[in-house]
Predict the 3D structure of the following.
Amino acid sequence: MWRVARPETLRVSLYIDGNYDAFMTFRNHTNGVSTTRRQVLAVSGTVLLTSVAGCNTVLKPVRDATSDVALEEVNVFNMADRQIKGSIEVVDPAGDTTFEKTFDLEHEQDQNSGGVFGATGEYAVSVELTNTAIEENSQASKTVAIDDTDEERIGVVFNTNEEYEPIVIRVGTTPKDFLEVAN
């Protein structure tokens, strides 16, 4: 909103939610020379940037499916509304256990591990929760096919989204492939 108090004064105000949150005033000290458009634009930009500084957390949407997640060969995501403790085991196509690990994850925390895949083929994935259950489920297992060990990843997602199973085991190549079950 623009307000002109006197011909030689220009006041720029930012009106948000019924209040004037920020304002700047240009005063012309050259007796009659008007304020330039460049000065008005500079003040407007400064007022706008100053008014939204520090608002990133307010404006930030719910966790973006691809944010802050670096995938490894085996990934465990806790998108449930509680802390999850348990263990995961992966058995390779030859029948050897190539990965066995425990996890203790808070809500929206993940655990990623590499060095699991040796060859392409069928991998058996088993997950067991300790002293907790998600919708009365405390374990899951699934055999998944890994056709490209450089691109494909195994993901286990714990969630309380009613559209999907509480424990989802799947193969994907991006974080979005796994986290879409929780959004």
Q: What stands out?
A: The CA atoms of residues 43 and 169 lie 54 Å apart. Residues 74-179 form a domain with the Immunoglobulin-like fold (CATH 2.60.40).
